[in-house]
Amino acid sequence: MISSLIEFSLQQRLMILLTVLALVVGGSWAYQKLPIDAFPDISAPQVQVIVKAPGMSPLEVEQRITAPIEMEMQGLPRQKVLRSMTKYALSIVTIDFEDGTDIYWARQQVSERLTQVSNLPEDADTDLAPITTPLGEIYMYRIEGKDYSNQDLRTIQDWTIRPRLRKVEGVADVNSLGGEVKAFEVIAKPEALVQHGLSLDELEESISRNNRNAGGDRINRGNEILLVRTVGNLQGLEDIRNLTVATRSGTPIHVKDVADVRLHSLTRYGGVTHSGMGEAVTGLVLLRKGANSRVAVEGVKKEMEALKSSLPKGVQIIPFYDRTELVKSATHTVEKALAEAVVLVLLVLVVMLGDLRSALTVALILPLTGLFSFILMYFFGISANLMSLGGLAIAIGILVDASVVVVENIHTRLHQRAKDSNRLDTIVAAVKEVSLPVISGSLIIIIVFLPLFSLTGLEGKLFKPLAITISFALMSSLILSLTAIPVLASFIMAHTKVTDNEGKVLETLKRLYLPCMKWALFNRNIAIGIAVVVLVLSGVLFTKIGKEFMPVMDEGSTVVIIEKNPSISLEHSLASDAAYQKAMMELPEVTGVMSRTGADELRLDPMGLYQTDNFIQTKPRSEWKISLAEFQENLRKKLEVFEGIELAFTQPIDMRVSEMLTGVRATMAIKIYGDDLKVLEEKAAEIEELVNKIKGAVDVVRNPVFGQLYLQIEIKQENISLYGIKSEDINKAIETAVGGRVITDIIQDNRPVSVLLRYPEDKRSSMEAIGSMPIRTSGGAMIPLKYLAEIKEVDGPVQITRESAKRQVVIQANVENRDVVGFVGEVQATIAREVKLPEGYFITFGGQFENQQRAAARLMIVLPIVILLIFLMLFITFRSLSQAGLIILNIPFALIGGVVSLYFSKLYLSVPASVGFITLFGVAVLNGVVMVSYFNQLRQQGYNILQAVEEGSLRRLRPVLMTAMISMFGLAPLLIATGPGSELQRPLAIVVIGGLLTSTLLTLILLPTLYAWMESSREFQK
Known about the structure:
The chain is α+β, with helices and mostly antiparallel strands. The chain is elongated and about 125 Å long.
């Protein structure tokens, strides 16, 4: 079949050329249509239930909202993780589903369960988070306008900008942060209410009942009908002031008699400050799950341009984060490496083949394979991102291997053919001669990458696109090498002269190689002994290499997380941010700092008032005079002078990935599970102290459990029963008077403006003031609250996190200058030795350590299976167990260089480095197949074993060296590449290049020696 395909291709050369042309057009079109992003979608199908509970403490929210919702969500089909975070006025329940779950189906399941949750507080506002991912923040901007207040700018953001941007294709929602939301505030006067015998309930009811329209159906007038409606909507401040609350002795009591009414804002749960210049208003565009980020950002930018004419004079939108910049940087890193690799590969081909035409013929496989791969990626829905394009960059040397072997054999046969022989027949014969090892080698390399398809979790989502594109490229390369490349060779190499001259470079290499190979043949025991000793020594080195999940990728942006005193007020927190920003801006590299404190509008980032994310804006890296590590150290020094804060350094995407995986923002997470918050706090503090003492620990942060001051009002049941007062009456009075209650909305210019009812500041801001709050008895009298309840100040929880419906506390840490696995191992040993947990309490470890352990365990299972599959493929190819085993022996010897280069480069064994070792398997086996198959061909032609080994080794020296050198030079640009993503590819390139050095040496020296030994033994036994 393969022979027929080769013959058909060279007989129908015009058809093949037209097919190649169609491939070029189709591939170019597919590349233009491919979704482009920085990363593959690594998020699990996730649904978040967000409940806003104004004024409620964390304990109250946990008991009345979080726990009931978690109870209903347990047992959902395909549920993988259930966790929650409870904070002041907020509950977020996160449900992760198994990979492959349809997100709309998952949301439907959660929505149905939510309807079954009973007895939620009346004021609780329950929503599902937008259909986005933790990496969905693609565009951020701030709104500026001279002579405009932050309330004005927030109104423009909410009612002018946000609705327009939400219409853009691919946008899930637009989050608003900072500024003040306009509201009408009704400040009740307690003395006036008591004087007129009124309660807060009556004031609330009079305002809400007087703010509605109604329909009276219709009346007939002759042949016409008139629709009847009453218009009773409130229009503004004066309407509210003039409402009648009650009538006393025929005299109406208006709202203005018992309350002050003013234009104000809703209670804020977060804010944004900018570069030490005070508060700002910002917007954050969220990408819909599965949408094309490049298209979405382009659409947002176009809409921004169109919006300019709709904005009030003097208002402008200033972007400060654009995901396309990262996308461009990441794809540029790969594209630059690809372009440099192509040039280096072409140089190797010209030098080794000694013929420009032959080199160009081989080099054509690269663009054609890439275009073919783009077509397959388009039809299989694989986006062009750092990992999928990185697969092409990684495989560039391997992609050329098949065409190298084919063209090199064509080149040799054309040089050696008789002058009167047919050129096409010579090409057909040359291609057929190497077709079996080429097909076997290519299929084996594809099999080698099967372990990447078995990876799960984050590593699976990251590396499967890479494995898929490599597989696509290898299949494309194989097909093209047996069809299009021979046809192109028949035209491009048509004028190759018949000569025995192999070129000076190859002749020199043969003169050096032959004595070495012969020495090994006749000193077999010494040669094998040296190889085994080197193998053992590399095994010892391997045990000394640290392990980590993945190198930290430099995204080009720095985020500094600052945590302050948990009981800090929002106003004080925002004010202190200005001082931190000014300190950071003293560094010459920093051009601005955008700081987000507390929760956002949609509550997708549920930070406390004491937590601030500082997004550092800098000059281009090309203008820096220091490294990123030095820059971050300088930032740390600037901030460490401030007392009472804790610091952590991260990056926008890295932070979101960590949050998505473990609910925290650091490399390592230690989770302590139990029921008693005080015990959890005590053990967490103990573990935090131990972790801080371990070498490599930085940014160690313990999520505070306690530290929030509470004004606790304990109702005395025996007292309220005397006055006929219910607990709910006191609860509602406190919620409204102190927390403030939105009682209705007034429509202005088709925009709802909330009406907020509460007590004045001085009547709700102290223990004494709250104790004096009048509560109406069943008889209508008023009695101060202090006679009905005990009011005291206590320390309470800041936040309560839960996983699988069990409380937990998390200690998070980043790791510096050592491997994560070794660090976590030391932490585990220290905790096991020093910390005694009560019964029912336990500890788990999350973050990168958990991912690394899962990936390592999976590879340990899959790799032996893959080696067995390779062995079976080799046995099918050679029909010999000994020859199949001989080539398999190449694999451990190929790893020597990879281990040595990884050790001396001071890098760790990570998933990318493991992919490098997997790549080495394929190249080592391919070269072994090329050598052994030719030895067998020569023996079939009548050569004895030594003659076959000597002649075959010399004959296959060039293709083996070329495949190795091309693979090495193809990856060389990744060693020196900079920019986002280069950190992931560098360990792989180091492993492959180092491994190829030893693999090639052993293939050329040790493999012929072992082959001669084994085959001689077989013949002797016969």
